Amino acid sequence: MNSARLNLSKFAFWSICTVAFCWAAGTIIFEISSGIPKTREEWAHRAMGWFVQFVLIRTFQKGVRRYYAAVA
Asked: Mean pLDDT throughout 39-65?
């Protein structure tokens, strides 16, 4: 039972890592292809997106730390 849970948690962790990597790659591609915002509305929209990205990355980092603390 414990080995099945451990394997499932490893699979879930690495799946989330894959999704986070793809999300970051997509964001970088979008930012590069969009160019520099020209209006205040574009800047505001971009800033909200950056804030959401920051929160997601921070949450992911906390989860990674918890995972490695639990596994080690």
From this structure: 88
DSSP letters for 1-47: -HHHHHHHHHHHHHHHHHHHHHHHHHHHHHHHHH----SHHHHHHHH
Go through the chain and tell me how many residues it has: 72
- In the Cβ-directed half-sphere of 72, how many Cα atoms lie within 13 Å? 6
Q: How far apart are CA 7 and CA 33, in angstroms?
A: 39
Instruction: Please report where in the chains the tokens 């969009």 appear, as a residue.
Output: 34
Which position has the token pair 């490695």?
Answer: 68
Rounded to whole angstroms, how far apart are CA atoms 45 and 1?
Answer: 47
Q: What is the pLDDT of residues 7-18, one digit of tens each?
A: 777 888 888 889
Single pTM value for the model: 0.59
